[in-house]
């Protein structure tokens, strides 16, 4: 009996440090990531707005887009109500996450363009749209939508040209049986390709090579319509494997910041529409 009590106490003592103390390197990395994100997006000055919408929302990191709760297509908005000028070229960010990346572009980009963020996690959409309203921006809008089933219905109704689509570090869904949950499926690729205006571009990006390669393969399959941008824009350079060497957007996404601090490589491809499918 004494041996049992001693053994139990010893096991507790062994487990105690790891239960209470996270690895120092992980804690430092998390702090560095937070600081780096705050610095990158400092000019948005969103922190004072956290009082109203909470800085630390409890957000599910992974959702199953095949769930019945995400199967109904989202109706398009009244474009005249969400954009000051709904005839401007449109950029769509699929899986926009926290929305900071798109808000920064809407506020700081010199291009006359509208910005639409599609996100499957409703709490994030609620907060980002709150920020947009507080900032008084009339060239950006966020929507709760499963892009895989809603993109065509939403974008085909937009009265202006679709000039840019970005899919940046989507959920990798690593397990092979979960690959069907990945956002970029053939119907979405077909819809993006069809709705892009001539000269419109698609930017794909991931810090997971397998995911980036999968997205690349899907868009490479439309080489009769889409050309990789380095063949039409000599200002953008690629490595020997065809990945863009630099971020062409002028700002990094939050996931991009975290990944680079962890030493990960960012794999990017950008395509430009060179002809319509009917030609």
Automatic annotation (TrEMBL):
Class of the enzyme per the UniProt entry, highest EC level: transferase
Signal peptide: 1-19
Entry EC number(s): 2.1.1.33
Keyword set includes S-adenosyl-L-methionine: yes
Single Gene Ontology MF annotation: tRNA (guanine(46)-N7)-methyltransferase activity
Keywords for this protein: Methyltransferase, S-adenosyl-L-methionine, Signal, Transferase, tRNA processing
PROSITE patterns: SAM_MT_TRMB
Name by which UniProt lists this protein: tRNA (guanine(46)-N(7))-methyltransferase
């Amino acid at each position: 009996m004494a041996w049992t009590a001693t053994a139990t106490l010893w096991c507790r003592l062994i487990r105690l440090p790891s239960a209470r103390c996270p690895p120092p390197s992980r804690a430092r990395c998390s702090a560095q990531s937070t600081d780096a994100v705050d610095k990158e997006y400092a000019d948005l000055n969103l922190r004072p707005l956290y009082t109203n919408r909470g800085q630390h929302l409890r957000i599910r990191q992974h959702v199953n887009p095949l769930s019945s709760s995400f199967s109904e297509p989202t109706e398009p908005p009244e474009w005249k109500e969400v954009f000051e000028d709904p005839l401007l070229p449109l950029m769509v960010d699929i899986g926009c996450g926290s929305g900071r990346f798109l808000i920064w572009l809407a506020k700081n980009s010199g291009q006359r363009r509208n910005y639409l963020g599609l996100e499957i996690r409703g709490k994030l959409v609620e907060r980002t749209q709150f920020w947009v309203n507080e900032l008084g921006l009339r060239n950006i809008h966020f929507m709760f939508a499963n892009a895989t089933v809603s993109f065509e219905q939403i974008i085909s109704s937009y009265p202006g040209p679709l000039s840019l689509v970005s899919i940046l570090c989507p959920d990798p869904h690593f397990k092979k049986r979960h690959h069907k949950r990945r956002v970029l499926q053939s119907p979405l690729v077909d819809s993006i390709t069809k709705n892009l205006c001539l000269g419109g571009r698609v930017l794909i990006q991931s810090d997971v090579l397998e995911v980036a390669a999968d997205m690349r393969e899907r868009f490479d399959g439309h080489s009769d319509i889409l050309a990789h941008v380095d063949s039409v824009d000599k200002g953008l350079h690629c490595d020997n494997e065809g990945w863009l060497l630099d971020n062409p957007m002028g700002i990094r996404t939050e996931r991009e910041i975290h990944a680079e601090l962890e030493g990960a490589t960012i794999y990017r491809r950008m395509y430009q529409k060179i002809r319509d499918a009917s030609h």
